[in-house]
Design goal:
With about 300 residues, the protein is an alpha/beta fold. Helix content is about 25%, strand content about 20%. The longest helix is centred in the first third of the chain and has 15 residues. It is extended and about 90 Å long. The protein starts with a helix and ends in a 5-residue tail after the last strand.
Length: about 300
Amino acid sequence: MKEFRGYLEAAPNSPTLFQQYFAEYTIAPDSGQSLIYDNPLAHLGLPQNSVESSSMESANTGSRFDFCIFDDPISRDNGTANEEQRAAAVSKHSSVMALREPSGFALNIQTPWVQGDLGDVMIKRNEEDPERPLAVRVDPVMEIRPEAADKPLLDLKEGDVVFNFLPKLNWKFVRDEMRSPEGIDFFKTQYMTEWVESEESKWTPTFTLAELEAKVRPINFFEGKTVVRTVAALDTANSESITADLSSICVARVFEHEGKSVALIIDVIAGQWRYSKLAEKFVDACEKYGIKQAVIEKNGIP
């Protein structure tokens, strides 16, 4: 929005050529809000009298639009981390689209992240619709030549590919990005515009149903057993956004059973809280259950 306003904010005594041709659309540099452009010709009853910058977390109730640009509406930490976040991002996009005027339209520009994210859902729904209402364009940084199509990405040579954005890109840069610490799946999403499987979808159980049932015990199984100590594990969420994961406090009692230490989960407390509120919840749990030891994780580090 800052760049957009820059075209139309006329500096005193030094308007650009564009501003001279379209002087009726120009505004003073300090007029209005920085994230909103109000059209000076609004009194003429134009289709839309302003341009506004917003976000996926903002409330847009009451607004309407003729043209909307979704510029990277999702990211690694917002709308892609798990199934709930992906569903919330799709729902939010639908809510914003409900504000479109009957003759309005929208443009979604985004990077693929994981299967089931907003872009993947939009494309799949478009393919299921006989009328194909969306115009879809996918732009990878390079095309792999047919004779090298069976090669793994890390085995490709410069002659195996054709770049789509020359001269901006070169083989050295692309080769280094393939081998970045982010991993090859990250390269596939960011540069090859492919939707890869999420980590959740790759999870497989390492036990059978029979093994699980054999280990299930009734709630009173440990009655009479000696309690060694009460412990807790606290996992903090990375965001307070409505679509973020929950912070959680897992409380367990450790018993001596057949010569081994066995942990029994007695409570799981979860919610979206600020760190100060999470600390209060943790102190309350310590007082309620007599917690003697705890592991607190933040940003993946205990």
